[in-house]
Structures are given as C-alpha cells and as structure tokens.
C-alpha cells in the first residue's frame, strides 16, 4: 500500500473509482477528460494510492505559480477511515512545496461536512470567500 504518481495502466481503476465516489459529478468532470487534461499539465501532481495492485485513492493537484489547488480526492469506501486521504494530501503538499507553492486551496461541496471535518483535522481552515465559477 503506497502513494505514487498516476500511470496510464491505472486509468480503468481511476475511472471506476471516480464514477463511484463522484456519481453526481457534472458532465465537464467526465473522468477520462479530467485524466487527459491533467496528463498534459503537471502530471507529477496526479497521485494514486495503491493497495493490492488496485487504485483505491486519488488526488489531483495543480500549481499556477501563485496558489496550489487540490481536486478529486477520492477514496474507495472500503478504504475510508484508514488514513488514505491524509497520505494523498501529504504527497500533494510535498509536490507543491517542491514547485515553490506557499499556500494550497481546496473546495468541499456544500453539505459534505464529513469531508470538511477531515480536512480541518489536517490543518485546513475555512476562509471567508465566495467560490465562483464559469463554464467556458
């Protein structure tokens, strides 16, 4: 069991995990599209957690030169509560630090207090912001 960088051979496991964990994701987050996009930009910040030769956790991070972002933290339900997301976060923070990142952000969907509490326990804090987005 360990965290490592995504490999193309992980695609099937990652797609299945995301389809399960993010079942209500909007169409623009279609797993293969997200994977292809990430592999074009900072692929070293696409982490998987592997257990018994199967991907059971993921995290996608990015750094724009100003802030780091964490996305697609997913852990298979059978592996939740065992520190997988913490190990993925630590790997992302290390990778972002190596790029000179000083601050990392993540967003939690409204109503997902369990995830928010987990991130708070890892040192993240609520910020007085309004998150806005626009489809292009």
**Number of alpha- plus pi-helical segments:** 4
Beta-strand percentage range: 15-25%
The CATH topology is Aminopeptidase
What's the architecture, going by CATH? 3-Layer(aba) Sandwich
CATH superfamily: Gcn5-related N-acetyltransferase (GNAT)
Uncertain runs with pLDDT below 50, 5 residues or more? none
Overall number of domains: 1
Provide the gyration radius in Å.
Answer: 14 Å
CATH class: Alpha Beta
Topology as a string of helices (H) and strands (E): EHHEEEHEH
Fraction of residues in helices?
A: 25-40%
How far apart are the first and last residues' alpha carbons, in Å?
Answer: 39 Å
Mean pLDDT, rounded to whole units? 95
What's the shape? globular
Which oligomeric state applies? single chain
Describe the overall structure.
The protein is built from four helices and five strands; from the N terminus they run βααβββαβα. It has about 140 residues and is of the alpha+beta class. The chain has a single domain, classed as Gcn5-related N-acetyltransferase (GNAT) (Aminopeptidase, 3-Layer(aba) Sandwich). Strands 1-2-3-4-5 form a five-stranded mixed sheet. Strand 3 (about 55-65) and strand 4 (about 70-75) form a beta hairpin. The model has no long low-confidence stretch (mean pLDDT about 95).
């Amino acid at each position: 069991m360990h965290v490592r960088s995504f490999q193309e051979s992980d695609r099937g496991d990652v797609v299945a995990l995301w389809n399960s964990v993010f079942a209500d994701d909007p169409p623009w987050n279609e797993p293969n599209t997200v994977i292809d996009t990430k592999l074009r930009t900072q692929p070293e910040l696409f982490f998987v957690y592997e257990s018994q030769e199967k991907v059971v956790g993921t995290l996608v991070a990015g750094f724009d030169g100003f802030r780091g972002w964490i996305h697609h933290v997913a852990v298979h339900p059978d592996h939740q509560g065992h520190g997988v997301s913490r190990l993925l976060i630590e790997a992302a923070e290390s990778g972002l630090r190596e790029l000179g990142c000083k601050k990392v952000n993540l967003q939690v969907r409204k109503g997902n207090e369990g995830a928010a509490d987990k991130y708070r326990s890892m040192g993240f804090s609520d910020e007085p912001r309004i998150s806005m987005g626009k489809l292009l």
